[in-house]
Design goal:
The complex is a heterodimer of chains A (311) and B (504). Chain A is mostly helical and 311 residues long. Among the domains of chain A are: 67 residues, no CATH class; 75 residues, Cytochrome c-like domain (Cytochrome Bc1 Complex, Chain D, domain 2, Orthogonal Bundle). Helix content of chain A is 45%, strand content 4%. Chain A is built from eleven helices and three strands; from the N terminus they run βββααααααααααα. In chain A, a hairpin with a 2-residue loop joins β1 and β2. In chain A, α2 packs across α10, α5 packs across α10 and α6 packs across α7. Chain A is elongated. In chain A, 32% of the residues are buried. With 504 residues, chain B is of the alpha+beta class. Chain B folds into two domains: 346 residues, no CATH class; 130 residues, Immunoglobulin-like. The radius of gyration of chain B is 35 Å and the shape is elongated. In chain B, the strands form four sheets. In chain B, strands 7, 8, 9, 11 and 13 form a five-stranded antiparallel beta sheet that branches. Chain B has a four-stranded antiparallel beta sheet with strand order 12-10-14-15, with no helix packed on it. Chain B has 18 helices and 15 strands. The longest helix of chain B has 26 residues. The chains are: A mainly alpha (311), B alpha+beta (504). Chains A and B meet through β3, α1 and α11 of A and β1, β8, β12, β13 and α18 of B.
Chain lengths: 311, 504
């Protein structure tokens, strides 16, 4: 089979194999190729010595340089934290009310808040902060407890109806139907009245008219005579288009009958103040943030230029 | 008829040194010229200046990786315009096809960096050690002190050239004068030192020692070119029908009529930078540098025979010539259908790139809509959507611009830097020079607005003007939300638009 012969055209020996008349010349490899191969062997030995390489029963050889992917991650994390440290210190040193005056810092705070939001808040409020039934949408302009930076920071720090925090947001609506304060018919009437405030029921309807009296007797203390709510109690505005627990008749009846008292953890017990400040900045930036002082917003040209310059 | 090739004696073959002799002639002078031009471009180009005003660097050719810009004289390329670079690379590829189909392996013979630097280093060899014979003698001489000294001197010169080569490379990636200062004061980026070290080593090693081994064993391009050559390609050809049988002048004088023009002087082998014998026929080691043509022409002139025993010819033409026809002029050989097709494609891409370059806009608006949530209902019942607008100003000066809503009646917009109370149909801002400005805007439309398409219109409000217009979609709650699969969305909307309308 292996019949080596001299190739006439080139004078080179063939390797002796033949496939359908095609033969291969036994051209020698260049010597440096062999040396390159030896060099790779030397490199491999060096690699085995300095890097983790040989698997053992429990783990493996650690290598002279003690490298590990976990260690590399830890080093990266440390260096990233070192890079962030000055920004975080600046945010910590700036009162939240002064943050908007420093667009670069504000932008950093919003970015940091966005990251923290994805870890801590999306479970209830959703990835887009759009909430769902019972969990407020943070993008809109309706706030139960107030929507300026400081108020949001307070709400996040102390939570809502959270035991163990003395400064937590606290209020309790009576379960008007469940506790027998109002009979079912009156609950339905007051629900009709409440829905008439935002035009869902014609204001002149008989049910709404009856409900108005019941509302005046039972609800105005917290929700106000005009139904626009009161933020010191976290009492929702009933005259707007936004319904945390649904705005149809059945939902409103259910809300009046059993009442709702949503809770939120007091994040001050779990997160550091800088993270909370950044979270407040992020939530405020979602589009519904309110001003607490006149002239707070920078004009877009300056803000934009400053932001671009900071990039 | 042919020099016998060595029979393989082992698995591995030691490199036989190549010591090409000095030669002068048409093609050698062409090689000198091409070497001078390519090296001048490589070493000199980063030092050319080009005034671009206060907002951009003044280096004529600069790949600014940190700021993601590519500058080439009056042209500035942004990352999203990378298709220009891709187009240039395609042109370079097709250009190689074109050159190969027209003049064979001219790239290998004249313009390839491996060839140019090898040539340069071979000149250094001749400068330090003398011509071919002196080099051979020194190569075989024992390692005496004087040989060691000569080798060290030669390798130091290699190293200096190699270091310059590596050093010139990094100048394309940063402002050259600044980088030189930083480099020598130890303040340049580690990647700069790393690049210089790697390129110095590869130049030193590949140009100084590997030389023709790179072409014969390492480089894929000779294989590709071998596949692209056909019977119409110009290759360096030994006209064996004219040269054989080889015999010295003495033999020819003794026995007239028996011998061909080749006097077997071996000059073609002596000058070959890859150490091959062209008289064995076309082979992969031939980079078609044509130095053997120069050598043979000189000998032919000395012995009074016509030039061109070794010459550029196509296989097709060689067959004709063998049959007795006169040789076709090279000018005619270059133009054949394949060349014209490649030239056509190459020119079409070039024209397309020039057209794109001439008509590209320097102002651009890109819009990215928030998808989660797609829309919000505000407390007054109006519907709000949010976008991130990207205003691109490619001019090298800040420009005042204005974004306006077109369509979507009753809607207003405001940016995240202002309040809804300041909302309007337009937003004015200044976009800094050479920048993409991200701008987050909210658009609120009155309650009951249906889902619809509308446009953001960007206009520069300075004297030069210009602008862009981008269509996007305004999302709003639908009335038919009781379709399956929409429950989640219905939750988001808090049921404020449900069907039961007691009011009506």
């Amino acid at each position: 089979m292996a019949e080596k012969r001299l190739d006439e055209a080139t004078g080179v020996e063939t390797v002796g194999h033949e496939w359908d008349g095609i033969e291969e010349l036994n051209t020698p490899l260049p010597r440096w190729w062999l040396y390159t191969f030896y060099a790779t062997i030397v490199f491999a030995i060096g690699y085995i010595v300095v890097y983790p390489a040989v698997p053992l029963a429990r783990s493996g050889t650690a290598g002279l340089w003690q490298w590990s992917s976990r260690g590399a991650l830890a080093a990266d994390t440390v260096s990233a934290e070192r890079e962030r440290a000055s920004t975080l210190a600046a945010i910590a040193a700036t009162p939240i009310a002064a943050l908007p005056g420093n667009p670069v810092l504000m932008r950093a705070a919003i970015a940091g808040g966005k990251a923290a939001f994805r870890v801590n808040c999306v479970q209830c409020h959703g990835a887009g902060a759009a909430g769902s039934k019972g969990y407020p949408n943070l993008n809109d302009d309706d706030w139960l407890w107030g929507g300026d930076l400081q108020t949001i920071e307070t709400t996040i720090t102390h939570g809502i109806r959270q035991p163990g925090d003395d400064a937590t947001r606290q209020s309790q609506m009576p379960s008007f139907g469940h506790d027998g304060i109002l009979p079912p018919g009156e609950v339905a009437d007051v629900a009709s009245y409440v829905r008439s405030l935002s035009g869902k029921v014609a204001p002149g309807s008989a049910a709404a008219g009856r409900g108005a009296v019941i509302f005046a007797n039972n609800c105005v203390a917290c929700h106000g005579a005009d139904g626009k709510g009161a933020r010191q109690f976290g009492a929702p505005n009933l005259a707007d288009a936004i319904w945390l627990y649904g705005g149809d008749q059945a939902s409103v009846v259910a809300s009046v009958t059993n009442a709702h008292a949503g809770v939120m953890p007091a994040w001050g017990q779990r997160l550091d103040p800088v993270t909370i400040k950044m979270l407040a900045a992020y939530v405020h930036s979602l589009g519904g943030g309110e001003k607490f002082a006149p002239g707070q917003g920078a004009d877009p040209a300056t803000a934009a230029t400053a932001a671009a310059a900071a990039q | 008829m042919r020099n016998p090739a060595p029979v393989a004696t082992g698995l591995y073959e030691k490199r036989r040194g190549v010591f090409p002799a000095r030669i002068d002639g048409t093609f050698r002078r062409l090689k000198w010229a091409i070497m001078a031009i390519t090296l001048a471009i490589y070493y000199g180009a980063p030092w050319l200046r080009w005034d671009r005003g206060p907002y951009a660097p003044d280096q004529a050719i600069l790949v600014d990786l940190a700021h993601r810009r590519f500058y080439m004289f009056a042209i500035e390329i942004w990352p999203q315009e990378f298709y220009f670079v891709a187009g240039l690379l395609i042109m370079a590829g097709i250009g190689l096809f074109l050159v190969t189909s027209a003049v064979g392996r001219a790239w290998c013979g004249y313009a390839c960096p491996q060839t140019v630097w090898t040539d340069l280093f071979q000149h250094v060899d001749r400068f330090i050690d003398g011509d071919r014979n002196a080099q051979l003698r020194l190569h075989q001489a024992p390692w005496t002190a004087s040989k060691v000294a000569r080798r060290l001197l030669k390798w130091s010169i290699y190293l200096v050239i190699a270091f310059w080569t590596g050093g010139a490379w990094i100048m394309y990636f940063a402002d050259a004068p600044t980088l030189v200062r930083e480099f020598w004061s130890g303040q340049a980026a580690p990647v700069a030192y790393g690049s210089v070290a790697v390129l110095t080593f590869t130049t030193f090693w590949l140009g100084g020692f590997m030389r023709e081994q790179v072409c014969i064993y390492m480089c894929p391009w000779p294989r590709i070119q071998t596949a692209m050559l056909d019977e119409k390609s110009l290759i360096v050809t030994y006209k064996d029908w004219r040269g054989e049988t080889r015999g010295s002048l003495k033999q020819a004088a003794k026995d007239p009529g028996t011998y061909g023009d080749c006097i077997d002087c071996n000059q073609c082998v002596a000058v070959c930078p890859t150490g091959i014998d062209i008289r064995e026929g076309p082979q992969i080691g031939c980079i078609t540098c044509a130095l053997c043509i120069d050598a043979c022409d000189r000998v032919m002139a000395q012995i009074g025979r016509p030039r061109g025993l070794i010459d550029y010819a196509t296989l097709e033409d060689a067959a004709k010539e063998k049959a007795g026809c006169p040789p076709t002029p090279h000018r005619k050989l270059i133009w054949h259908p394949r060349t014209l097709v490649y030239l056509g494609i190459w020119s079409a891409i070039g024209a397309g790139l020039l057209f794109a370059l001439g008509t590209r806009t320097h102002i651009d608006l890109a819009v990215q809509k928030d998808r989660n949530p797609p829309f919000m209902v505000l407390s007054d019942g109006s519907v709000r959507n949010a976008w991130t607008l990207k205003l691109k100003n490619m001019e090298r000066r800040p420009r005042p611009m204005q974004v306006a809503l077109q369509g979507l009646p009753g809607a207003v917009m405001w940016s995240d830097a202002m309040g809804r109370d300041e909302a309007g149909r337009t937003l004015a801002m200044t976009v800094p020079a050479d920048t993409v400005l991200p701008l987050r805007v909210y658009v609120a439309a009155p309650a009951g607005t249906a889902e619809q398409a509308f446009h953001f219109v960007l206009a520069a409000t300075d004297a030069e003007g210009g602008g862009d217009r981008t269509e996007t979609r305004f999302d709003a709650p639908r009335d038919d939300d009781d379709t399956p699969g929409d429950h989640e969305r219905a939750d988001h909307e808090r049921g404020d638009h449900e069907r039961e309308e007691h009011a009506r």
